[in-house]
Request: fold
Amino acid sequence: ENREAMLNSKSNRLTEALEEANRLFDGVCRAREAALDAQFLVIASNIGREKATELHSEMSAFDSTAFAEDLLTFMGINRTEVEETDDSEDVPGDFLPSDAWQKMGEEAAKYFRRAPTFHYMMGSFKSEPPVQKQRIERQKKASRGRAERAMPAQLKEMEQSHQEATEKEVERILRILQTHFENDPNTPISFFDFVIDPNSFARTVENAFHVSFLIRDGLAKIKLDEDELPIIEPIKPSERVEEDSRAAERNQVVISLNRKDWK
Amino acid sequence: QVSELVQFLLVKDQKKIPIKRADMLKNIIREYRNVYSEIVKKADRTLQEVFGLQLVEIDTKRHIYILINNLPQAEGQYLCRGKEKEKMGLLLVTLSFIFMKGSSVKDGALWEFLHLLRVYPGKQHSVFGDVKKLVTEEFVRQKYLEVTPIPLTDPPEFKFQWGPRAEKETPKKDVLNFVAKIQGKDPTFWASQYAEANKATT
Reply:
């Protein structure tokens, strides 16, 4: 406390305080008191430094208020006539134009040896290397149609192994085939209608692949109809048993389908 | 290697935050550590000859550098981004105040002075926004100002001084001339500041 009083260069309060502290220190026997004494010394030295600084600048008194006024003038302040109002707040009646600080800055720039900041003229790429994008889960769009055509629906990228994915697909296709046959038991579907996806050759190939599993496992069969075109139908459970014994009757057929044909 | 370093320094300087030697070593020089000083020297040469800039070490213990401008200030419009110009204005005013007051001021005294300029660190300013943050954080980070707490003050007080970047970028003589110009007086009017400003610089 009394900091301001001590700072007054005319006063000797600081010296007096120091002398008193010296005297008191002789009576000190507890550590806490010594600590207080040390604290006091720090504060006293700070005040001493401040006093020295004040002395220093008093030699060439610098009037900061006048400086501020002159700065405002430089920035183009508009000093309007202010009526004497009850000035409880510190609101000045005059105001600074909006470019006041810009003007200041223009002048200031001359005094700094500041390196102009470096920017590409046309902008630049982001300077960090691109973050490795996670492989996005592919969601193939379902191509829909209420028609009897086989519809390979959504093919989500499975996190499971390929093995299981295939099995699931096979199952799914079997179910589609069976569903169709439930609705229309006596009309086998043309193999091509079943398998071909008009929008995707790759999907078509996949479908044929999955159907081949069905055939191999004896869950569906392909026959040739009157026009020598292959048709596919599920095997009813009752038939299945017979199939096993007629293993020799299985034929191998290679159907080739290339992109052009597909189109 | 040299041109990479030059580019690195130029980009790092955009925010005016000083560059550490460790960063230079890690990002650019890497395997070439043994010729580090060669590369730095050549980079500095390039900066000077091509860009008119200079690489200056402001902290010899921790090896921290800044870029300053080697060329004499040209008259004319400066291309500045954002509020750079206005900030420079505020900065110069602050540095002048600190210098004229004996190179060190208490934060209270600085805020009082800024109030006179209609800049109130407690309130949002139309140009500077959060003035307190600008002065105590941005300017300090850029090493234009140095702020030190005054021990055993309650509530805590701080003192402001010139930072190392200001020391290198702004000759005290120029600052005194600025004050003199604003006040319409001769620099010698303030004898001790004049003496201080004209001390031989290291």
